[in-house]
Amino acid sequence: MRSLRLRVFALINAIRQKSDPVSDQPDPVRHILLVTLSNIGDAVMTTPVMETLHAKHPRAMMDIVADPRSSELFAHCPYLNRVIHRDKRQGWRGSVALVRELRKRRYDLVVDLRTDGLVWLLRARRRLTRRQARHACGHAVERHLAVIRRYIGTADIPPPRLWIDDTEQRYARQVLGPLPGRRWLALGPGARWEPKRWPPGLFRELVQHCRETFDAVVLLGSRTDEGICRTLADKLALPCLDLAGQTDLLEAAAVLTHMRLFIGNDSGLGHLATAVGIPTLTLFGPGDPLRYRPWNSHGRWLQSPNRDIRTLQVAQVADAVMQLLKETDRLSR
């Protein structure tokens, strides 16, 4: 009996050593799979998880399961191996095809920020899912990091980031070249849901109010925002470049790197702006800014008390703009 127990203990110990190598061995993690989120802003807010995992396993390459809408954001990530699209419109057939594709590789680590079900069908040495963070609270970035917190320890949360190459920066310099001065204001007047949109007329009044602070205005948005931006551009108090519907996500991000400030509604553009490090002011009506505000030290937000974004006053937004510019100018000295 004692001999049997010894053999069992030896077997358990061997399994542990195989699955959890000791610290003085070479880093065994070479292939990581990250299941990210769909919307543009949500995808940006998962990049701190990517950066944290990369810092822990700098030699590992990462596969990313992403939505076609936002997958472009990861195109130039230096530790990206490949992007695998997950399109919810394909239903269960798409899910089956996705699992089949992912099972072609055995991963050292799988991190699922989206759902607990998928990863248990994959070949993986270790899996981290939202179940590990089911009691997490706070900002979305903090909730995402909670999924891997026990795995990474007490590491600080890095800021969201984007990877922009020379092609996109050349595009930005070319389109911005004709604008006067350098104190440029970027506006994002669109949003997928109408109650999240501050009216174009109020944006126009804001530009009039701040016309001595900026040299020109750049309008950004998707093709669905073209009408809103066209309305806003009409009779604006400053020279205006309307790029709505004319850029992809990384081109828009490259344009934002040249801006003095971004002001916009609760949408993906605000998260792009914070990820490239510029000051941002996000306007909230409905929604939870404590959870979904853009995450950086230069990000500010305003929310109407009754959650009706139309009741946000131009003077209130203008005061927030001036305060934010004062703070960032003081820090940059």
Could you give a short description of this structure?
With 333 residues, the protein is α/β, with parallel strands linked by helices. The chain has helices at 2-19, 40-44, 47-56, 91-102, 140-152, 166-176, 200-209, 226-233, 249-256, 268-275, 289-292, 314-332, and strands at residues 31-35, 61-66, 80-85, 109-112, 127-128, 184-188, 216-219, 240-242, 261-265, 280-284, 299-303.
Give an overview in words.
By secondary structure, this protein is of the alpha/beta class. The protein has two domains: 25-152, 3-Layer(aba) Sandwich (Rossmann fold), CATH 3.40.50.2000; 174-332, Rossmann fold, CATH 3.40.50. The chain has twelve helices and eleven strands. Strands 8-7-6-9-10-11 form a six-stranded parallel beta sheet, sandwiched between helices. Strands 3-2-1-4-5 form a five-stranded parallel beta sheet. It is elongated, with a radius of gyration of 23 Å. The N and C termini lie far apart (75 Å). 37% of the residues are buried.
Q: What is the domain total for the residues? A: 2
The number of helical segments is: 12
N- and C-termini, Cα separation = 75 Å
Strand and helix order: HEHHEEHEEHHEHEHEHEHEHEH
Q: Work out the radius of gyration.
A: 23 Å
Biggest sheet, strands in spatial order? 8-7-6-9-10-11
- Corresponding CATH superfamily of the largest domain: Glycogen Phosphorylase B
Shape: elongated
Mean pLDDT rating: 89
The helix/strand class is alpha/beta
User: Which parts are unreliable, with pLDDT below 50 for 5 consecutive residues or more?
Assistant: 4-24
The CATH topology label of the largest domain is Rossmann fold
**CATH architectural label of the largest domain:** 3-Layer(aba) Sandwich
Count of individual beta strands = 11
What composes the largest sheet? 6 strands, parallel
Strand content: 15-25%
Helical content stands at 25-40%
CATH class of the largest domain: Alpha Beta
